[in-house]
């Protein structure tokens, strides 16, 4: 159902033969995600523009860029661990073998140039260039398996936030920024991965040990009560992260880009009364 809140009425309806697993919106497009198919519609007249077949997608994974003019859509491919990138402006399709395991979560930067992916293992997050499919960076959430619930780029794609069922939100510093290559990066990461802020007590031996230790750890962390599912986003204020829990909780916190470490909680609310919690 497409609801116009200004008119307080339903202005359109789309129906499907199987369960709708997800919906994504842009100002000009509506994307509907089914278990094994994705439909792209023109918002103005609800005309069907494109159909995409995917591997089984019970979570309804799909992401769209939000910048006007460049429409990029990312969805699971037809193989385990594969993602499909549709560049509608240039009419190009790119397949990226992102992981060996099943894709659990992904996110696009606002301009659609960068893609962050996580597998069902939940230990590593990979950042790709969506145009050529190249792997730009790999960051490590932790050593043990986790279910990653949410990934989010900051508006400038300088930072990436990750939430998982471990109850910790991590913020990573991103090196890659193809949409803004010439920009001055005041907080660019140290080229030596064994120096600078690190979320791990193992950072001092990263230069000695194999790849496990050399993948980059988070700059800043925020700990939440375990047991709920959390979604992360970056706030409008600089260096702030917003966290929403399915238990009705809302957190706003701030990280220090220079020293990193534990984030500072600025705000907390719960929008669900305890007796109504589900």
From TrEMBL:
Subcellular compartments: Preautophagosomal structure membrane
Alphabetized Pfam families for the sequence: PROPPIN
Supply the name of the protein.
Autophagy-related protein 18a
Where is the stretch described as Disordered? 180-199
Give the family per the record. Answer: Belongs to the WD repeat PROPPIN family.
Q: Which UniProt keywords apply?
A: Repeat, WD repeat
One cellular component term from this protein's GO annotations in UniProt: phagophore assembly site membrane
Keyword check for Repeat, yes or no. yes
| Record-linked InterPro entries | PROPPIN (IPR048720), WD40/YVTN_repeat-like_dom_sf (IPR015943), WD40_repeat_dom_sf (IPR036322), WD40_rpt (IPR001680)
Sorted alphabetically, which Gene3D superfamilies does this protein's record hold?
A: YVTN repeat-like/Quinoprotein amine dehydrogenase
Q: How does it sit in the membrane?
A: Peripheral membrane protein
């Amino acid at each position: 159902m497409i609801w116009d809140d200004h008119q307080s009425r339903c202005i359109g309806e789309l129906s499907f033969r199987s369960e709708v697993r997800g919906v994504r919106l842009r100002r000009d497009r509506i994307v509907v995600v089914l278990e094994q198919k994705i439909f792209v519609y023109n918002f103005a007249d609800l005309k069907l523009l494109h159909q995409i077949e995917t591997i089984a997608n019970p979570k309804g994974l799909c992401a769209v860029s939000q910048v006007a003019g460049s429409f990029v859509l990312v969805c699971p491919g037809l193989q385990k661990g594969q993602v499909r990138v549709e560049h509608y402006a240039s009419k190009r399709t790119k397949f990226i073998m992102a992981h060996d395991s099943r894709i659990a979560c992904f996110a696009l930067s606002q301009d659609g140039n960068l893609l962050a992916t996580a597998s069902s293992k939940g230990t590593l997050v990979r950042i790709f260039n969506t145009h050529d499919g190249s792997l730009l960076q790999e960051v490590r959430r932790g050593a043990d398996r986790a279910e990653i619930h949410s990934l989010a780029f900051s508006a400038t794609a300088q930072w990436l936030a990750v939430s998982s069922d471990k109850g910790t939100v991590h913020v990573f510093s991103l090196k890659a920024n193809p949409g803004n290559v010439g920009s001055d990066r005041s907080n660019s990461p140290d080229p030596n991965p064994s120096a600078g802020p690190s979320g791990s007590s193992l950072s001092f031996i990263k230069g000695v040990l194999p790849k496990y230790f050399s993948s980059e750890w988070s700059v800043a962390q925020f700990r939440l009560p375990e047991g709920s599912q959390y979604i992360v986003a970056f706030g409008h204020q600089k260096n702030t992260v917003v966290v929403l829990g399915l238990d009705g909780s809302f957190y706003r916190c701030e990280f220090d880009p220079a020293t990193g470490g534990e984030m500072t909680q600025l705000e907390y609310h719960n929008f669900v009364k305890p007796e109504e919690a589900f």
